[in-house]
Design goal:
Chains A, B: This is Recombination protein RecR. Chains A, B: May play a role in DNA repair. It seems to be involved in an RecBC-independent recombinational process of DNA repair. It may act with RecF and RecO. Chains A, B: A zinc finger (C4-type) spans 57-72. Chains A, B: Belongs to the RecR family. 2 copies of one chain form a homodimer. Chain A is built from 8 helices and 6 strands. In chain A, the strands form 2 sheets. Chain A has a 4-stranded parallel beta sheet. Chain A has a two-stranded antiparallel ribbon with strand order 1-2. Chain A has 199 residues and is an alpha/beta fold. In chain A, α1 (5-15) crosses α2. The N and C termini of chain A lie far apart (72 Å). In chain A, β1 (55-56) and β2 (63-64) form a beta hairpin. Chain A is globular, with a radius of gyration of 22 Å. At the A-B interface, α1, α2, α3, β2 and α5 of A face α1, α2, α3, β2 and α5 of B.
Amino acid sequence: MQYPEPIAKLIDSYLKLPGIGEKTATRLAFFTIDMEESDVVTFSKALVAAKKDLSYCSICGNITENDPCVICADKTRDQSQVIVVEQVKDVMALEKMQEYRGLYHVLHGVLSPIEGKGPEDINITSLLRRLQQNSQIKEVILATNATPEGEATAMYISKLIKPANIMTTRLAHGLAVGSDIEYADEMTLYNAVKNRQEI
Amino acid sequence: MQYPEPIAKLIDSYLKLPGIGEKTATRLAFFTIDMEESDVVTFSKALVAAKKDLSYCSICGNITENDPCVICADKTRDQSQVIVVEQVKDVMALEKMQEYRGLYHVLHGVLSPIEGKGPEDINITSLLRRLQQNSQIKEVILATNATPEGEATAMYISKLIKPANIMTTRLAHGLAVGSDIEYADEMTLYNAVKNRQEI
């Protein structure tokens, strides 16, 4: 005996999600059956809405309901700075800080020879075009992650931008707030010592 | 800046699933946006279908599209045996064996004083009623899990059934196929020695 068709189909759908295997998919499917019907309907509608109503901003690559996105459309923001990040989630993280009032550019990935990701696979061309077309941009802040791929991507982009005479900066590296020196890795400590500041 | 509403709603829906926290829900929501539209629509429909088209069999408690379920409706099956299991998934596991041709009864849980689950919270009343109304049933095979709660539930049910003069049996306990004696726990070894069989 197989599972009844409706549940088998639902298991198949859950299986398509990342990090969800056969057992978890089955558990989630059975859980769905015991959920409130209104919650299931909301979930069902949210799936289609997220797919249909959202797209990527044609200027910065951020996720948005309207093109251009609210950040690009907001003319009160500082048009001279652009922070380059790997993912949409990074935009949200930086916005939570409530200190930065400039613009963003989302790469949707990093250069990664291991995964076969080259410059044409991430949003670099659109960044360069944006810098060419928009003379207001004076500084590009490279905020890719502090990983080997993130560093390499930042270096690559900074070399491409240099001829255009736009300032490129990189986020500071050092100890995270609340972290223990005892447990910090060597590269973090090296950066923290190298970039020490007078108090 | 918050996430656009469609994605925030989808994150909320994913958060309602068991074992999925804020980070995973966000990852799944972003993954959904990058999925093929047809897959998202299929997923969305499967959710509602699983909720609307499935119910529990009024006889055995198994999950089904039609009531009674295919197993209860199949008169070629052995009507004299009923295997009592904790969950629907256990029915599927036993059916995969392709050896058993009797009926089932799904408890939908076990007695668990810690979780406040008493006899009225699981399908015991319907089992007793079924045994009273159906004189064809000669044997009840208690196939609750080999956990303290499963054992207690089996003991509890066997005591309730005893007066009705129906044979109650319990699945054999011993070494699992492919398992190492070295790594077997003491209770498993104790059961394996106690229930040893002549060859």
